[in-house]
Write a structure and sequence with these properties.
171 residues, globular, 3 helices
Amino acid sequence: DSGNNTHYWKAGWDYIQERDLDYGIYNTRETYPDPDSGPGELRQGMIGRTKLADFRQSYDGGGHRISNLVLTDESVGTGTVNGMALFGYTGEQTGLHDMVLYRPRVTTQTGYSVSGLVYTNCGSIMDVTLVSPDIDASGSYMSRAAGLVYENVSGARIEGCYIIPEQPDGQ
C-alpha cells in the first residue's frame, strides 16, 4: 500500500486523537534500519489516497495539535492520483473535526495539486484550524494549491474552519 497504511485507515473504526503529535521530533536516523537510506525527515503517507480507497470514518482531533506534518511527492506512493493532502478523498459519511494542524508542509515538484487537509471532500469538516501552513505547488505549471480543501463536492460541509498565517514559534 505504498506506505499509506490503507488497511489501517479502512479498518472501520472511528479515530480519536488523544494527545499532541509532533512530526518534528522524530529522528529518521533512529527509525530506519539503514540510516543512510532513510529520508531526512519523517513524511506521512496520504490517508484515503484515491476515490476507490477513500477515508470513510470520522477523525476527532480533540483540539490537539498535529505539528510539523510533512507531505511530499513520496507521500503519495505509486499509482494514479490527482492531488495530495493529509486526507486524499473523504467519503460522504466522513467527519473530520476539532483538529489543529500547526506548521504543516505540503510540497510537490510534480503535477499534483495540493492542499493542507483534504484534496477532495465529500463529507463534513468542522472546527479545523491550519496555523502557519506551507502549501507549495510551484514544482510544475500544472499544479495548483489550496489551503484547507482543494475540492469540496456538492453537499459536503465546511464549518468553523480557519487558516492562520505565519506565526512565531510556539504560538
